[in-house]
Amino acid sequence: GLLEKQNRSDEESRIMLEYAYASMAHWRVAGTPLNEQRGEWMLSRVHCVLGHIEPALAHAHRCRELTDQHLDLMQDFDLAFSWECIARAHALAGHKVEVQKLCLKAEEMGELIQNDEDRKIFENDFNGGEWYGLK
């Protein structure tokens, strides 16, 4: 809920970031590389929402690395979200050329999501949120 909140307080922003890191710490111990990949997505997204360019990019790149390293564990929507993640982080950084290429890849992967509900969730997320004027 805090990711989508319009008028988030500084305290709520701090809590959101803490929760994302706590979740990641948990899944590193109790989960699989799939959980870690999803945690990296969440960390990148939280940093994007907070306007933190470098950590948003770092976590987005790690999300993509984990996706490529563990394709056998990924669901079709994990592939699409990994591309959305890196596209959005590059949008925050103002990298227009990269954003255009990465958005095309995210859209392509989104179209391959088999489950209608999962595809709709991806499309709503991909078409929502802040793209910093670059999508």
What is the structure about, briefly put?
With 135 residues, the chain is mostly helical. It is built from six helices and no strands. Helices cover 76% and strands 0% of the residues.
Structural description of this entry:
It is built from six helices and no strands. It has helices at 10-30, 33-50, 53-69, 76-93, 96-111, 116-127.
Averaged pLDDT: 96
Question: What series of H and E elements makes up the topology?
Answer: HHHHHH
What is the CA-atom radius of gyration, in angstroms?
14 Å
Main beta-sheet annotation:
none
**What is the overall number of helices?**
6
Number of strand elements: 0
Structure classification:
mainly alpha
Cα separation of the termini: 24 Å
Low-confidence stretches: none
Fraction of residues in helices?
Answer: over 70%
Percent of residues in β-strands: under 5%
Q: What is the approximate shape?
A: globular
